[in-house]
Each structure stands twice: as C-alpha cells, then as structure tokens.
Specification:
The chain has six helices and 13 strands. The chain is of the alpha/beta class. The chain has a single domain, classed as Ribonuclease E inhibitor RraA/RraA-like (Glucose Oxidase, domain 1, 3-Layer(bba) Sandwich). α1 packs across α5.
C-alpha cells in the first residue's frame, strides 16, 4: 500500500468511526479505554508493546521502532495507575511519525498531549511515573481493553471509544461499515420526513405502557 492509498484508507475509516466499525465486525474495546482529551482521534495499524507492570521500557522501545503511521497499543498488566506516557514520549513518537497511543493504563501531561494533537486513549490519568528497566516485548500481541490485539491489526479511536479490526478482516469490515453508514443515512432522511424509529426498526410498542400524565 503506497502513501496515498494509506492516507485514503485512514480518512475513510476515521469518517466511518469507531462505533460504526465496531458494529460492522470490528472488536470494540472496553469502555474504560477512552480519549484523554476532548477531540482526540486515532487511526492506523497497531504496533504492540507489552510492559512489565509498573515499568514502561517496552513503550520506549516501541516509540523508537514503530513504523510511520502506527498506533502504539500497550498493555501494562495490573498496575494501571501510573503515568506510563507523557509529553516526552509524545514528542519522540511524533518525530518518528507515530500517530497515537492506546493503553490499558495511565498517562499524564494531558494538556501537552492535547497541544500536540496526539491521539491518546487510556484508562486513567496518573501523575506518578513508571520505572524503565524491566523486561517486555514489542511487535507481538497484547490484550488491551479486553481485546487481543496483534501488531498490524487496525485501530480506530474517537469520542465513542476504540475499535480493533483484524488485519485479515479489514476489507470485510470496511464493506460492512460502508453498508451500515448508507443504511443509517437513509434512516436519517426518513426520520426527518416524519417516520419513527418504531416503524423503521420494526419495534413492538405494545410492550411499553404509556402512562397518562396529570390525569389527562
């Protein structure tokens, strides 16, 4: 895939969004993994980093080796409340063309991350830093947000959350996402013309009691 094709793919996936792709065959991460600053977005192939709990050496290695356009996806085990990522790593990663971070743990320097416009999705903001000398692994597989992520899978994150798309399922999920987006567009037009979600979705309103308000 050349640069123009890659840019077009990122643009289309970002436009479809995490929710649509997550309903079209992608795997949504747990809701605890969310944007750490308003408006944060990320889209690209994953480059995984598995860290020893309490340590972020593997993240530093990932930031130095991840291919341009990658999203670092990091696991930190059961020690989540540390600042595993901040402005220093953001500056280093952006200089190498890394486009974002998804981590099942903490980050810090949130105002600086927003100023850099670097898309970061995490579970918590935490001030205290991690050590940098324990064993880890990069470019393999991690489990983040209750989803197994393999390096090369695609990651899409926005205000709704994060969705993972298996590399081998990319075309099928994209096709399903396009179809879902087209169907919803037609539904919006119908709703604006007076239709209800009850009729459009073939829902049974008789299961719900409509109470009278104020005795009328």
């Amino acid at each position: 895939m050349n640069d123009a094709e890659s840019a077009a793919l990122v643009a289309e996936m970002s436009a479809l969004g995490a929710a649509t792709l997550g309903e079209s065959g992608g795997q949504p991460m747990a809701a605890r993994v969310s944007a750490v600053w308003a408006g944060a977005k990320v889209c690209g192939p994953a480059f995984c980093a598995r860290n020893t709990p309490g340590d972020n050496l593997a993240i530093h290695v990932a930031a130095a080796h991840a291919p341009r356009g990658s999203v670092i996806v990091a696991s930190v085990g059961d020690v989540a409340e540390l600042g595993y990522w901040g402005e220093v790593l953001t500056t280093a990663a952006q200089a190498r063309g890394v486009v974002g971070l998804v981590i099942d743990g903490g980050v810090r320097d949130v105002d600086a991350l927003a100023a850099h416009r670097f898309g970061v999705f995490a579970t918590v903001v935490a001030l205290r830093g991690a050590t940098k000398d324990e064993a880890g692994e990069v470019a393999g597989t991690v489990r983040v947000g209750d989803v197994a992520v393999v390096t090369g899978d695609w990651v899409v994150g926005d205000a709704d959350g994060v969705t993972v798309i298996r590399a081998e399922e990319l075309e099928a999920v994209l096709a399903a996402g396009r179809a879902r987006a087209a169907k919803e567009s037609a539904m919006f037009d119908a709703l604006r013309s007076g239709a209800t979600t009850l009729s459009l979705l073939d829902l049974d309103p008789t299961k719900v009691v409509v109470s009278r308000v104020g005795g009328t």
